[in-house]
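Quick log. Single chain, no ligands specified.
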Amino acid sequence: MLTEMMKLEGEIPNFFMVWILVVASLSYCHTVGNLTSPGTTRLIAILPVVFFFFYLPLNLTTIFLGGPSSFFLAWLANFKLLLFAFNKGPLATTPPTSIYHFIPLACLPIKFRNDPKTPEKKTEHPAQRISNSKPLPKGQKSTLNYVIKALIFATSVQVYHKKQFIHPKILLFLYSIYMYTGLELILALVASLARVFLGVDFEPQFDEPYLATSLQDFWGRRWNIMVSKILHPTVYEPIRKISTRALGRKLAPLPAVLASFFVSAVMHELIFYYIGRKWPTWELTCFFLLHGICLAVEIEIKKAFDGKWRLPAAVSGPLAMAFVVATGVWLFLPSLMVRCEADAMAYREYTAFTEFMKSVSNFVKVNSSFLILAGK
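-> predicted structure:
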């Protein structure tokens, strides 16, 4: 426990230093965008930052700080910067986005629901719209929704303590639930903090994926929506254009879908490396390629029937989710839990953080008592 506390105490200054460097690097990219034209020149100027963002997560070793940071930097920020080099994506706006909005947009899983340059009406602040009793915008979650997911996630500690008494497959199924609820809570927290400081609404990152009616619905509209929207212009659209010339418009989406899932697989393998510092065993890649192939088949079947016949959502939805969960337990979760030992890492860090906060609280109490006695 002492080792974990020392590790956490060393991680916190590293975390702040990493993000200070991120802010400085993105400030440079913002300046580059104002001084260069889109294309090769801007790309050459931005590429050092892209390589730097691949390196920065190596300075973090905890799952709670290093995991999200590697996702934000190596994947989201780098892909957005590559789009920005060619005047595409959320960072490319006319007139240019202010640096105040450029930095969080570049490195966080957020997208403005409304134009950040459009002033809000003085009669109502965005935070007020969220907290009042009016109907929530499409995709916006209620506080109760997040409370329920937080309570579900809170049971993970007890499950970890009792895991030797739980069947391995059931345990992985429970971990899949904790992974989803944990991700949604973390991303919602990031978006909420950004909402408070920037004063704008953001699009949701998840849209109740367990309600998906098909694989296409799950991956394209409900699961980690920001990643889907980043993969579409960076991978799907360019590959589809190339494939159209080689295969024709009818078959062009198939290699584009497979390429998108392959890139997603590579980025997941990289993030898992950042977390566990262990070389990939490629089950994760197999998971995404399998889903890419099945999604491509699903798209072609839908085209063949041309909307004339489709399984009822009450049937197709459970089938799709059963496939996602079964393949996740088979290929995805073992990479995270066995290769990276994410559950053990998370528990050790949670315990170390709890002990650290207790020591801080005791230190504050002792010093407060000392000051009170000294004042008397």
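Residues 35 and 164 are 59 Å apart (CA to CA).
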